[in-house]
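Severity: low
Component: inverse-folding endpoint
Summary: output formatting inconsistent between runs
Steps to reproduce: submit the following structure tokens with default settings.
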């Protein structure tokens, strides 16, 4: 088995916790923008729980969850990583999700595997637009959330109260601080003041101690504490509690804590906690909050299931003794053990060395030939609880738990594992479409086969990839989420699969068509000893409406072209249409009428008339106006209202035609436009800049339209 080289996991890793009841599990995903401190926080929590002897550092490449070479090089998370720990007898599966937009697929996988989310907000950088939209998405499904404010000890950090005010403004109701940071004698963070308990948790001595607050602290925080208590009481199921509180009754602390935990678990109240992971401040409070306030898998709604044929089945329950239903949320390839699947168990108990049924949503993936076969039985390999690169064996995974499964050679990300006697299929989770196309080519002939195989495996691992062999342009096109995503993929192709690969300019599928009627004559006469070649044909050409395709009409009279060669002329015309008549692109929407010709009793043949038909079409094009057609996409851009003008201006600069805008709520608008595909090659990257990270878009092919003459002339010259 591979072993982590990180300082945080140095030495022998502790035995993995292996719960037998779902109520002893918490599945929590950490989300937030790049640089907010998620990975550093995970390191601190692992150390505070005793899972690792000391926390690693992102800057040193020694963290548990960022063990991939690309992560060490870039000093940021690029993949979802599982970091299990045990606290107060409960297994906590921390899912460290990447914050950069290119790796949203792993973020979505983390949300699928989790029952609650910790939103990590940097006091230096605040809340970005992507985090705000993710909060709204979690709110729509009722996912419990808490906010952790990090980097309060940094020079440019905002005041904690200011960060809370920002979170309340952008996240909405129910966001309230549960603790306040306490400054030490040197002005740095020294401890926390619990607003409910009115207890100071002092870390100034290097260890956590509890004491009563100073009298001046009580007066300073009274307003904040009163607002918190009113917020908790407002969420209480006891409708008399607010009246009693307003009447001056002192509400018992135990009642407040119980109501707080219930409100957090049902996703209607969102505590804010200050935390300084490098100094160890607030980590115990975070762990207590996860275990006490976040729901167990028993309390979280489970996804719907059907049979593999699509017939609905009754709702799942998180029962270790129920039917097995688990889902592959992430797939990786380990150089030692091969394919490793990260699996969330929804129902039943997953055990090693058992045969399960693997079923999946075939339309979501492009597969290499060896990856086909997506409704099969397969034997489960060893189960483990990963801690970074270390795989710690476990005997089982009960409903609600997350584990790694070795050697599932046919299962891909998003696939369902279930009983082979009663197979089921979990509804797919929402994944964004990859929108940055990149044409790839092998650097040598020897790399061509390895490139196809390596790309096929990467696509099977990552549902935000799509691989297309474009028949019109002859290019192998990988659709990904952005340049950082592409950088990681190319590095894995070279390092993991030994493939020499380069990118090349993306070609767009252009077409040609006649702008008006034309006449052409094709004459193929050749005498070279023995039988010669003789064929003459004359054709009339006229354009057809878009989408009409090709029509061939025979109007020859008097046998000028013998019947057996009529089809030969058509075949020659079709062949020339595929090759193009002006710039080498296929000709479309055309009617060709054969009106006359000549034949020789000995020298005419099928091939001679095919050649004459092709020459006739080229002759017609020589004297006609031929349009170069380019594909247009219908583009829908969802963007914050303040950037609508900038997006519309940018689309216009791309020769796009804005067809409409409409508000969609939450301060966002939908901008629709028709844009040439030539101008959309890098739009996935450029939109982030124009919209300051608030924009997303979809695109679909609409039609081909004539290219402007100036641009068409440059394309013809370049071709």
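Observed output (run 2 of 3):
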């Amino acid at each position: 088995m591979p072993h982590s080289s990180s300082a945080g996991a140095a030495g022998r890793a502790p035995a993995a916790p292996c719960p037998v009841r779902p109520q002893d599990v918490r599945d929590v995903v950490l989300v937030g923008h790049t640089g907010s401190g998620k990975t550093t926080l995970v390191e601190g929590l692992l150390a505070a729980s005793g899972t690792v002897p000391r926390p690693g550092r992102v800057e040193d490449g020694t963290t548990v969850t960022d063990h991939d070479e690309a992560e060490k090089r870039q000093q940021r998370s690029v993949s979802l990583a599982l970091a299990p720990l045990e606290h107060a007898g409960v297994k906590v599966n921390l899912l460290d999700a990447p914050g950069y937009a290119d790796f949203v697929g792993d973020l979505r996988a983390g949300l699928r595997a989790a029952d609650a989310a910790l939103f990590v907000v940097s006091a230096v950088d605040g809340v970005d637009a992507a985090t705000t939209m993710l909060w709204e998405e979690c709110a729509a499904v009722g996912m419990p959330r808490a906010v952790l404010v990090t980097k309060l000890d940094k020079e440019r950090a905002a005041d904690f109260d200011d960060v809370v005010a920002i979170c309340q403004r952008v996240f909405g109701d129910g966001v309230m601080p549960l603790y306040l940071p306490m400054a030490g004698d040197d002005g740095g963070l020294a401890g926390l003041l619990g607003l409910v308990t009115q207890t100071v948790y002092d870390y100034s001595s290097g260890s956590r101690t509890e004491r009563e607050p100073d009298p001046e602290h009580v007066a300073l925080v009274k307003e904040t504490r009163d607002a918190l208590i009113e917020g908790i009481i407002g969420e209480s199921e006891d409708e008399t509690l607010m009246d009693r509180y307003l009447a001056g009754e002192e509400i018992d602390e135990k009642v407040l804590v119980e109501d707080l935990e219930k409100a957090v678990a049902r996703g209607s109240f969102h505590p804010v906690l200050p935390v300084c992971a490098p100094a160890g401040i607030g980590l115990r409070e975070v762990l207590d909050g996860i275990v006490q306030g976040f729901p167990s898998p028993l309390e979280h709604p489970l996804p719907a299931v059907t049979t593999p044929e699509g017939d609905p089945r009754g709702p799942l329950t998180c029962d270790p003794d129920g039917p097995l239903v688990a889902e592959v949320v992430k797939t990786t390839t380990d150089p030692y053990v091969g394919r490793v699947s990260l699996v969330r168990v929804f129902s039943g108990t997953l055990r090693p060395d058992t045969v399960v049924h693997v079923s999946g949503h075939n339309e979501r993936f492009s597969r290499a030939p060896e990856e086909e076969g997506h409704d099969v039985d397969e034997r489960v390999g060893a189960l483990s609880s990963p801690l970074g690169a270390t795989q710690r064996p476990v005997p089982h995974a009960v409903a609600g738990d997350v584990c790694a499964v070795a050697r599932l050679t046919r299962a891909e990300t998003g696939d369902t594992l279930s009983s082979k006697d009663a197979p089921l299929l979990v509804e797919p989770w929402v994944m964004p479409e990859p929108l940055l196309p990149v044409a790839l080519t092998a650097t040598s002939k020897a790399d061509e086969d390895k490139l196809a195989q390596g790309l096929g495996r990467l696509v099977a691992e990552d549902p935000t990839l799509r691989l297309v062999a474009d028949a019109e342009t002859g290019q192998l096109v990988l659709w990904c989420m952005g340049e950082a995503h592409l950088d990681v993929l190319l590095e894995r192709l070279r390092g993991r699969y030994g493939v020499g690969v380069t990118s090349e300019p993306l070609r767009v599928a252009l077409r040609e068509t006649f702008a008006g009627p034309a006449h052409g004559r094709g004459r193929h006469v050749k005498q070279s000893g023995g039988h010669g070649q003789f064929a003459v044909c004359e054709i009339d050409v006229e354009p057809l409406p878009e989408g009409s395709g090709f029509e061939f009409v025979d109007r020859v009279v008097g046998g000028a072209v013998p019947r057996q060669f009529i089809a030969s002329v058509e075949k020659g015309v079709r062949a020339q249409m595929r090759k193009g008549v002006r710039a080498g692109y296929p000709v479309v929407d055309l009617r060709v009428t054969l009106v006359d010709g000549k034949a020789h009793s000995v020298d005419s043949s099928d091939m001679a008339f095919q050649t004459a038909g092709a020459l006739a079409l080229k002759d017609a094009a020589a004297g006609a106006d031929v349009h170069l057609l380019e594909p247009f996409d219908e583009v829908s851009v969802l963007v914050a209202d303040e950037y609508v003008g900038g997006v519309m201006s940018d689309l216009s600069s791309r020769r796009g035609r804005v067809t409409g805008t409409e508000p969609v709520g939450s301060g966002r608008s939908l901008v629709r436009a028709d844009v040439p595909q030539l101008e959309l090659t890098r739009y996935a990257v450029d939109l982030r800049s124009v919209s300051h990270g608030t924009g997303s878009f979809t695109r679909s092919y609409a039609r081909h339209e004539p290219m402007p003459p100036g641009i068409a002339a440059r394309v013809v010259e370049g071709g």
